[in-house]
Write a structure and sequence with these properties.
The protein is mostly helical. The chain is built from 7 helices and 4 strands, in the order ββααααβαααβ. The protein has one domain. A two-stranded antiparallel ribbon has the order 1-2. Strands 3-4 form a two-stranded antiparallel sheet.
């Protein structure tokens, strides 16, 4: 066993011991300064975000004839893939700015909630897009399996940690935005 150098504790170090580290429990309680967003508030934000997207993408899908072809089940794999990629690119264009600035989509911003990592910090845009949104967006396109995952994803929110499947994938949670005290004159 080796001892520490001069000026350090006389503790002995076992060079053959397994390394140790403090691990963060993702299901642990939210830090005191953060309060989890309510489930209905998260649903409302999701509905607002979906409405924003539908207002723009819906008419494009309708007037391009995609909607009619999809209802008649006449959409090929290439066209479906193009719409999936285009839809995700549109999502990033629409929501990228508020996600980068504050960890919020427009709907989350309107309802006073935001996305944070498990330590309570704003995750980077790459993590939000690459881990929180992209995997489930593209998995949802897989027949049967995608629909099953799409059903399970929001149902996981009923656990005590209120995290959806996409939160678990990305290591995020959604919390209420703290209101800053206003300066009085």
């Amino acid at each position: 066993m080796a001892t520490l150098g001069p000026g350090m504790d006389d503790q002995q170090i076992n060079p053959y011991a397994t390394p140790s580290a403090a691990l963060l429990d993702p299901d642990a309680d939210v830090p005191d300064a953060l309060e989890l967003a309510e489930r209905m508030t998260r649903l409302g934000a999701s509905l607002i975000d979906s409405a924003f997207a539908l207002v723009v993408v819906g008419p494009v899908m309708y007037f391009s004839g995609f909607w009619a072809r999809a209802m008649a089940q006449q959409v090929g794999l290439a066209e479906s893939a193009a719409w999936t990629i285009g839809g995700f690119a549109f999502f990033v264009a629409l929501q990228g700015y508020p996600l980068h600035q504050s960890g919020q989509t427009w709907g989350k911003r309107m309802l006073g909630i935001r996305i944070v990592d498990l330590e309570g910090r704003k995750p980077g845009l790459g993590r939000l897009i690459g881990l929180r949104y992209a995997p489930l967006h593209f998995v949802a396109q897989i027949p049967i399996f995608g629909q099953l995952v799409g059903l399970i994803n929001p149902l996981v929110i009923f656990r005590s940690d209120r995290r959806c499947l996409h939160d678990h994938v990305a290591g995020t949670r959604v919390v209420k935005v703290k209101s800053e005290p206003r300066a009085t004159s």
